[in-house]
Specification:
The complex is a heterodimer of chains A (126) and B (462).
Chain A: E1 3-7, H1 11-23, E2 27-31, H2 34-43, E3 48-51, H3 60-70, E4 76-80, E5 96-99, H4 105-125
Parallel strand pairs in A: 1-2, 1-3, 3-4, 4-5
Chain B: H1 5-19, E1 28-34, E2 40-47, H2 52-62, H3 69-75, H4 84-89, E3 93-95, H5 98-101, H6 125-132, E4 136-138, H7 149-154, E5 160-167, E6 170-178, H8 188-271, H9 276-304, E7 312-314, H10 316-333, E8 336-341, E9 349-351, H11 353-372, E10 380-389, E11 392-399, H12 427-437, E12 441-447, E13 451-459
Parallel strand pairs in B: 8-10
Antiparallel strand pairs in B: 1-2, 1-6, 2-3, 4-5, 5-6, 7-9, 10-11, 11-13, 12-13
Helix pairs in contact in B: 1-8, 8-9, 10-11, 11-12
Classes of the chains: A alpha/beta (126), B alpha+beta (462).
Chain lengths: 126, 462
């Protein structure tokens, strides 16, 4: 069972993603902000991170860079209401960039794709 | 020097004085001026007949009529005195540079030069007159020196005199005159008169030139001003577009977040209609998010369509106390300690109570965000002070939050400007607008890491 870390400061949205991913059989962990997310990755790294960008304090892009420093192989999906961060250099190290939508399909597809790619890479190494 | 119509009129008048019978009575005259770059002498105008036949016709037509010089100056225009001579000479250029038709060197001779008295020279008499700023008279036209062939052709029959046009010791050009058709020798007295005329003409030309320059500068300034206006228009336009862009970006994100939540939970309801407990919870969330959207909409509409304040005599201290009581619970939930330091016997102020409440709430909300960003163990303080000061009542809202960075400070009242993850960027813009609408003013003092104070002054007298 793949572990997903949802980093989102909006309570309702965090709940929404938790329920949606749990329904699909993922084990879901939550972080309210970047600091919490980095702490979580240090202690108990998930298989994939879904990361909001606009958050108070350490924003998603700063968090992304920190996570990448800690664990460069940990896949991260940026999930934002903003499209313009896509062009920022640091966004390129994310494995996917999904614009928030009421339909969770795109985000779910991105998670599946990223995890499948990771599984394939692991298989090749063996 | 470029000859504009005004300048040409002046030059024509000068040459008319040189050639008219009641004037100096020379047969022909040409006026040369230096060009703009001071590299050439240019024949800007010539007056006089081209051939003896033409001369005969002109003189006969004028004979018998007792024209005064003044009459002639008025009657004879540049257009009416056009002749083949003019066409032949005008536009001829003589380089001031020695290289082409240069002098043989050495200092320019002084006084009138009688060619017969010295050895033949290649010096151009026009240049000589120009450079030495003295009259040069050529008695023997064959010895005209090194001048353009066309000019040599024209001045080949009789004595020629070249007089410099001077303005304040500076040579502007040269007048060349002769008596090609009458063959009359050019006497000393004529030359002296011509010199006087050339002196006056030089001053007049210099004035005209300066006037022209001033006019040119004025039109350049006008042009610059027009350009500036155009640029400003463009800037305003592009700034407006940029503002619209910023508004659209901000609003669309503010809308997208609640929509994501609303849509997401609505889908959940559709997928699990049987789980009534969850349906009820989701409905609650949807209602909350819709309320956020409505609040956003109201804020936008209030901002774009502000109502003028409805002024009422108000005890500001009482208003603040009531507002503080209503919101104290909310503030203490966020661990914020609200302190009121209200000056007793504060004079009553005329203000729109709803607007002033909105203004204070916006400031408190800002303060709340600022203190929330401080470390969790730090005390979170919000202080509201009132003070009576020379014709105004001052309200100061201070927090001990993170402070506003120096580069952000100039933009805080700009509509739709925000550094926050969520927010319209209208909070402080509304605060400023309300202060302005009350004829008041707003000041901000902020120290990074230790806090911010907004002070609003509201005038007492109405």
């Amino acid at each position: 069972m793949a572990k997903i870390l949802i980093v989102e400061n909006d309570d309702n949205q965090r709940l929404l993603y938790r329920e949606n991913f749990e329904e699909d059989g993922y084990q879901v962990f939550e972080a309210h902000d970047g600091r919490e997310a980095v702490a979580r990755v240090e202690v108990d790294p998930p298989n994939v991170v879904v990361l909001d960008i606009n958050m108070p304090g350490m924003d998603g892009l700063q968090t992304l860079a920190r996570i990448h420093d800690l664990n460069p192989r940990l896949p991260v999906i940026l999930n934002s209401a903003y499209a313009e961060y896509k062009d920022q250099f640091v966004s390129w190290i994310a494995d996917a960039y999904v614009i928030k939508s009421s339909d969770p399909k795109e985000l779910k597809d991105a998670v599946r794709r990223v995890l499948a790619r990771r599984a394939l890479r692991k298989k090749r190494k063996r | 020097m470029k000859a504009t119509p005004d300048l040409r009129g002046l030059i024509h008048a000068i040459l008319t004085c040189v050639t008219a019978g009641p004037g100096l009575g020379f047969n022909r005259a040409v006026l040369f001026l230096t060009d703009d770059r001071q590299t050439h002498l240019v024949a800007v105008m010539a007056i006089g007949p081209a051939t003896p036949e033409e001369a005969h016709v002109t003189w006969t037509s004028l004979a018998g009529k007792n024209h005064s010089l003044e009459d002639l100056l008025h009657e004879v225009t540049e257009e009416s005195s056009k002749s083949a001579f003019q066409a032949l000479v005008e536009g001829l250029t003589i380089p001031l540079d020695d290289a082409e038709f240069g002098s043989s060197g050495g200092p320019a001779p002084t006084g009138h030069r009688a060619a017969a008295a010295g050895p033949p020279t290649r010096l151009n008499p026009l240049l000589e007159a120009y450079r030495s700023r003295r009259v040069v008279k050529i008695v023997e036209p064959a010895l005209l020196g090194d001048i353009p062939p066309r000019l040599r052709e024209v001045f080949s029959g009789s004595e020629v005199v070249c007089v410099p046009l001077l303005a304040k010791e500076r040579a502007l050009g040269v007048i060349v005159a002769d008596n090609a058709f009458s063959g009359e020798p050019i006497g000393e007295q004529r030359i002296q008169l011509l010199q006087v005329l050339a002196l006056l003409a030089g001053l007049a030309l210099d004035n005209a030139r300066m006037y022209q320059q001033v006019e040119g500068q004025a039109s350049q300034l006008q042009q610059a001003l027009d350009d500036l206006h155009a640029t400003q228009e463009q800037l305003i336009h592009s700034e407006r577009l940029a503002t619209v862009g910023a508004v659209v970006a901000r609003v669309s994100h503010e809308i997208r977040n609640p929509l994501t939540t609303i849509g997401g939970f609505a889908r959940t309801v559709r997928a699990h209609p049987e789980d009534l407990e969850r349906v009820a919870r989701n409905a609650g969330i949807i209602v909350d998010e819709v309320e956020k959207l409505e609040a956003l909409l109201k804020e936008m509409l209030d901002f774009t369509n502000p109502k003028p304040p409805t002024l009422q005599r108000t005890d500001l201290n009482a208003l603040i106390t009531t507002l503080a009581n209503v919101h104290r619970d909310e503030l203490s939930r966020c661990d914020v300690v609200l302190t009121l330091e209200l000056e007793p016997n504060l004079p009553a102020v005329f203000l729109d109570r709803n607007q002033i409440q909105r203004m204070l709430l916006n400031l408190w909300q800002n303060a709340l965000h600022a203190v929330e960003e401080q470390p969790a163990d730090a005390s979170r303080m919000l202080t509201v002070q009132t003070r009576h000061e020379e014709g105004a009542v001052r309200v100061a809202c201070s927090d001990n939050g993170r402070g506003i960075p120096r580069d952000v400070l100039p933009h805080i009242f700009t509509p739709f400007f925000t550094t926050k993850p969520r927010g319209t960027g209208l909070g402080l813009a509304v605060v400023k607008r309300i202060a302005d609408a009350h004829g008041g003013s707003i000041e901000v003092q902020s120290t990074l890491g230790s806090g911010t104070t907004f002070t609003i002054a509201l005038p007492i007298a109405r």
